Amino acid sequence: MNADLKRIRTEAETDLLEAFANAEDQLPGRAETHAARRARMALFEREGLPHRRIEQWKYTDLRTLVRQLAPLAAQTANASAPAPAVEGAVQIVLVDGFIMHHDAVPAGVELRSLRTALEEGAVELEGPSTADRAIDALNSAFVADGVIVSIAPGASISTPLEIVFLKSPSASMSHSRAHIIVGEGAQATIIERHVGGAGEAVQSTIVTRYAVAEGASLDVLRVQDDGAEAVHLGETAIDIAGDTAVRLMHLGTGAKIARVETRATFRGEGSRFDVCGVTMAARRQHLDHTLYVDHLVPGCESTETFRSVIDDAAKGIFQGKIVVAQDAQKTDAQMASDALLLSETADMVAKPELEIFADDVSCAHGATCGELDDDLMFYLLARGIPHPQARKLLLHAFLSEALETFDSHAFEDVALAAIEAWLTDHANADEAASAS
Amino acid sequence: MPAVQETIEQVRQIDVDKYKYGFETEIDTEYAPKGLNADIVRFISAKKGEPEWLTDWRLDALKRFETMSPPTWARVHYPEIDLQELHYYAAPKSTEGPKSLDEVDPELLRTYEKLGIPLKEQEILAGVRKQGEPSTLDDAGIPDSLQGKVAVDAVFDSVSVVTTFKDELAKHGIVFCSISEAVHTHPELVKRYLGSVVPVTDNYYATLNSAVFSDGSFVYIPKGVRCPMELSTYFRINAENTGQFERTLIIADEGSYVSYLEGCTAPMRDENQLHAAVVELIALDDAEIKYSTVQNWYPGDAEGKGGIYNFVTKRGDCRGNNSKISWTQVETGSAITWKYPSCILRGDNSVGEFYSIAISNGMQQVDSGTKMIHLGKNTSSRIIAKGIAAGKSDSTYRGLVQVARGAKNARNFTQCDSLLIGDTCGAHTIPYIESKNAKAQLEHEATTSKISDDQLFYCLQRGLNEEEAVALIVNGFVKDVLQKLPMEFMVETQKLIGISLEGSVG
Questions:
Q1: Nearest CA to B260 among B328, B311, B321, B318?
Q2: B435: chain A residues, CB-CB within 8 Å
Q3: What is the pLDDT of residue B358?
Q4: How far apart are CA B232 and CA B229, in angstroms?
Q5: Does the pLDDT at position A2 exceed 50?
Q6: Does pLDDT of A121 surpass 80?
Q7: What confidence score (pLDDT) does residue B471 get?
Q8: Which residues 6+ apart lie within 8 Å of B56 measured at CB?
């Protein structure tokens, strides 16, 4: 009775399959790895790129957003990395997914090439091949190199480790991957920098996987500042063992189309995960942040705080899903997403979900969406503060509130500087617009 | 001692069975042959003596339906329904179209009596309040003689058996009859508004309904008239292997007001029965519609055997400026509930409201919520949803708040709270918030919790047993919504909440 509609492949989808067929021989890994790659590719053969009929991709339809696929990037020998975001940070630079260079790492930190690990069979590209994990699937199919960072058990690394995911300035597709293993009782600070591409149409998938062992403590700062024409598909998956504390701060301002997925899974009791995010979108940017927090075990706490400012004809998307499994009693999870729309043509979508199977829990989420409060604005204007400054002041206050849960000064400085820079850029743009 | 008597009564009611409407009426029923095809659609249409345009409309819907596949996005699980194994039309033999009360089969009247639905005019719903007692409702403008009356349209399987108080309503120019009758008496209204809120191809079950809908209520409130009494429809599924596909259409013309109630029950059976209704509300300038539902279809037994699949499309269109549509629902029955009463806020300054209590126990699955589509300027909406899950049930709130580019100063407030009783059930919240207008202000909050031990201890310590205490606390939890229900439903609902939570403690 139901007509079986045959899917028509878009140009990008056909190109994707072709790119894989051409590249497969050169990709590292043993027979098992190649089988895993092909299994992941089968998803795209079957389903194509994720589209709006797939619930998790409802608002970021890659079939329509990505019409053309850029050629696969080759390894480049020289590119210049930006100065570290936090002074004194140790840089590990990946260009289009390939390790280019790294600074000397402190004791207790070990770096390995993912390529070598794949060739030796020390690492497998395991994972589900389902439409909701499309980014990981795409990355696993194509990934050729990357970095494995291991922090020795008990090591306390005070120097931040900055992994720079640099894209070379030519229209190309790249797949980068980093695995970070934090040993028992270790302490570490990781910065993910996503930059480069200049004004070129670079397309990239970036997967970072964190395995945080018992009693460890990890701070992550993720700065997504890709070029103005970039397509950024990122996934950060964090496995959290018992009695650990993980904090993640996300700053999203770059790329034309960005989909960033954060997936945190509690695997041991008594742990804590705090995530905060600031998204600033303008022009015709499409910035999607999708968050999954899975409470699989009892007695864990999580907080999720997100703030977005959307200007011009940009679109902001926040999807957050907290799952509390049946065993996960005494879970405490609080999620908030607030957004300000700055122009008549800006869009915001929020989908904060709760999926709860345990009864002794305290879970809540809140979402708001609106414009700058007229009363607050009036108050500042009445005190003689000119309109652009007043607006900037209020936006600054709104965005920086998301960072308050996070008491890492180094991260806060980076975030506040990014907010300041964005607001200055846009205040100027607004003034220029009103002058013309 | 009246209190003792009351207690005995209550215990007896509970003891017999948890679902007290599970009986079956022995009555001669005429069926359409099993299956779904163009001939069946023509058969239904011919049975009702419908004009050609409506037959064509149905056939067109069927044609489109054949290209559709069942929706899978909802958080409910059920085996595929074999639509060819259903009777799409079942009617008591003694009923050939609507008639006066005296001619109705006494067996039918007894059925409704047993359900506590008075079909005799002048009567007042049992157990609510005696005639002459002051009402707490806002009765402004309603003559004393009419207060407390409820006009009822009784739908039995596929046909409307009787509609009460028709004459009295006719004096005010109000049309309240079955939709099959309205097709003949007011074809221009039906033709103009049918399918104008829920288009034929809106979704899988709405399209199926458009092809095979059998009966339902039709209401038209003329300009400036405040409907003097509550209108209500009582749906009853009786026959086996049937699906009920009713269609309700309510039109409130400029400046009018109507409050409409809907109730539903079905016998206890081992098989699952399909109920796929479509309800369309239209509010023109300054009109207000208040639509209340107490849904108590048979939920199936503790193992999840049997029960009604309640797949319903309900939508209101605030077409005129300053119009208002308010949905209130109490969902306690059905094996699976899949419904999203929605408001399209098209007119400027229009208001949409949604108040819901969804209670699930046993193996029930609920995926319900609302959609508020803000199109006009200064539109506002409010959503209060309370979900209570017990036993092994799953309760999901799924709601959309959408603000279009032109909906300046739109305002929404959403609150969904879930309460879990026991650790084998699930409560989920899935809101979709989409704003395209900076001037719009949207707020959403949701919480999930369990009954606090402190509250329970406090009640137990005062001599209540655990089940009573839970019922009391739950009643407090849902109070915000209960207050929005018409008086006639409140007493019934409070009892219902007690009954559907029985056995959930311990």
A1: B328
A2: 339, 341, 347-349, 369
A3: 87
A4: 10
A5: no
A6: yes
A7: 79
A8: none
Q: Does A368 touch chain B (CB under 8 A)?
A: yes
Cβ within 8 Å, pair A368-B446: no
DSSP conformation class of B226: B
Question: How many domains would you assign to chain B?
Answer: 1
Q: In which region does residue B421 sit, left (phi positive, over 0), alpha (psi from -120 to 50) or beta (all else)?
A: beta
Place of tokens 């306690």: B332
pLDDT of residue A276: 93
The C-alpha atoms of residue A319 and residue A263 are separated, in whole angstroms, by 12
Residue A280's DSSP bridge partners are A309
Helix (H) or strand (E) holding A12: helix A11-23
- In chain A, where the domains are located: 11-268
B74 part of a folded domain:
yes
Give domain status of residue B53, yes or no. yes
Cross-chain CB nearest to A344 (options B432, B438, B449)? B438
Residue of chain A whose alpha carbon sits nearest to that of B406: A344
Helices and strands: H and E segment counts in chain B: 12, 25
* First-to-last C-alpha distance (Å) of chain B: 31
The closest of A426, A414, A358 to A389, measured between CA atoms, is A426
pLDDT in tens, B191-204: 999 989 999 888 89
**For residues B80 and B344, which has the higher predicted lDDT (pLDDT)?**
B344
**Residue range A304-312: mean pLDDT, rounded:** 94
Distance CA A358, CA A383 (A): 52
Mutate to test the interface with A, among B64, B448, B449, B453 (most CBs of A within 10 A): B448
Residue B350 lies in a domain: yes
Asked whether the beta carbons of B411 and B401 are under 8 A apart, the reply is no
- Separation of alpha carbons A357 and A363, rounded Å: 11
Residues in B touching A4 (Cβ below 8 Å): none
- Overall average pLDDT of the A104-127 stretch: 88
In 3D, which of B138, B75, B51 has the Cα closest to residue B430? B75
What is the tens place of the pLDDT at every residue in B69-94?
Answer: 888 888 888 888 888 888 888 777 65
Joined together, the tokens standing for residue A191 give 């910065």
DSSP string, A370-411: E---HHHHHHHHHTT--HHHHHHHHHHHHHHGGGGG---HHH
Mean model confidence pLDDT for chain B: 79
CA distance A182 to chain B (A): 33
SS3 call for A166: strand
Residue B374 lies in a domain: yes
- Domain containing B164 equals 18-129+143-500
